[in-house]
Amino acid sequence: MKNIRKDFSVEGEANLQDDDPVGPLDTVRENIEIFADNLILQQSLREMIDWIRVLEDVLQDPDISELEVAQTKEELNMLQQAWCVLADSLYEKGISA
Questions:
Q1: Which has the higher per-residue pLDDT, 9 or 30?
Q2: N or C: which end of the chain has fewer CB within 10 A?
Q3: Average of per-residue pLDDT values in the chain
Q4: DSSP conformation letters of the chain
Q5: What pLDDT is attached to residue 96?
């Protein structure tokens, strides 16, 4: 008679790696993930606005060189494009100001 032993350690690892909880914990996890995503997005938008303001102030400085003006305008343009992409993606999700 063969001694057949099932290796439960492998099955246990597979079960621990399942990313599909059920019940109220699943709902809680989804809500926490959405909340964290929104906090990160909100902080990113605030920092973008702050940086745009800094760059606009730099452009008002009469002592900056033409190269600095060009670089600042280029960076402002990139930030404004990023802002538009974010706004469009939020609008597609049904979020508008």
A1: 30
A2: N
A3: 83
A4: -------HHHHHHHHHH-----THHHHHHHHHHHHHHHHHHHHHHHHHHHHHHHHHHHHH-TTS-HHHHHHHHHHHHHHHHHHHHHHHHHHHTT---
A5: 74
- Tens of pLDDT, residue by residue over 36-50, are 998 998 899 899 999
The pair of three-digit structure tokens given for residue 49, joined into one six-digit string:
């606005």
Q: Which residues are CB-contacts of 75 (< 8 A; sequence separation ≥ 6)?
A: 55
For tokens 């606005």, what's the residue?
Answer: 49
Neighbouring C-alpha atoms within 13 Å toward the C-beta of 75:
16
